[in-house]
Amino acid sequence: MSKASYNFKDYIRVIPDFPQPGIRFKDITTLLKDGAAYRAVIEEMRAAVEHLKIDVIAGPEARGFVVGAPLALALGVGFAPIRKSGKLPGETITASYDLEYGKDELAMHKDAISPGQRVLIADDLLATGGTIATSMNLIRQLGGEVVGAAFLIELAYLTGREKLDGVEVFSLMTYE
Ligand SMILES: O=P(O)(O)OC[C@H]1O[C@H](OP(=O)(O)OP(=O)(O)O)[C@H](O)[C@@H]1O
Ligand SMILES: Nc1ncnc2[nH]cnc12
């Protein structure tokens, strides 16, 4: 199928009341299992962020890895993992945050980003923006410049974009 003929939302499975009542969970596994569609979304993201001239991509565990790592390869840049606390083996900095469902803490290695590097944050989904705001906080603490944020999916009704003031935001699919 040619890229132009994709309706990417057809590849997203919406699961009501997961992981708790009232949440409409956007399941990307139905997209990822289709190699051609997976390649096409990464190519769309690559083309959208290429002009930002980034040095490194940072992606939050776990679904940020399946978007951020292939995007880093497509752009020819490195990948810095942002992990849930307690997983990274080296010296870390941490920050805690609230999710659409629950609370968590994220960590990065102190040497993951060099001061002055231009960083793009990549994730599967922007909801309340808590994950990305916390990721930005960590990257800035390390001296990185967050120049963009790229998502497969944006839940516009949760207004997470407002937390990304001053950062260029790209999302492939928007749910109103
Ligand atoms: O904008 P927010 O309200 O912060 O929500 C979005 C985040 O929530 C999900 O991750 P989750 O923490 O569920 O972890 P997972 O990737 O390990 O499933 C999703 O992958 C985003 O990272
Ligand atoms: N509604 C949702 N679907 C999938 N992942 C999410 N992360 C936060 N909210 C989500």
TrEMBL record:
Pathway assigned in UniProt: Purine metabolism; AMP biosynthesis via salvage pathway; AMP from adenine: step 1/1
Coiled-coil intervals, chain numbering: none
Reactions this protein catalyses: AMP + diphosphate = 5-phospho-alpha-D-ribose 1-diphosphate + adenine
CDD domains listed in its UniProt record: PRTases_typeI
Annotated GO CC locations: cytoplasm
A Pfam family: Pribosyltran
GO MF term (any one): adenine phosphoribosyltransferase activity
Gene3D superfamilies, per the entry: 3.40.50.2020
Keyword Transmembrane helix assigned: no
Annotated localization: Cytoplasm
Main location: cytoplasm
Domain Phosphoribosyltransferase: 30-154
Keywords noted in UniProt: Cytoplasm, Glycosyltransferase, Purine salvage, Transferase
Annotated EC: 2.4.2.7
GO BP annotations, alphabetical order: adenine salvage; AMP salvage; purine ribonucleoside salvage
Taxonomic superkingdom: Bacteria
Subunit field text: Homodimer.
Family: Belongs to the purine/pyrimidine phosphoribosyltransferase family.
Functional note: Catalyzes a salvage reaction resulting in the formation of AMP, that is energically less costly than de novo synthesis.
Name of the protein in question: Adenine phosphoribosyltransferase
Gene name, Swiss-Prot/TrEMBL: apt
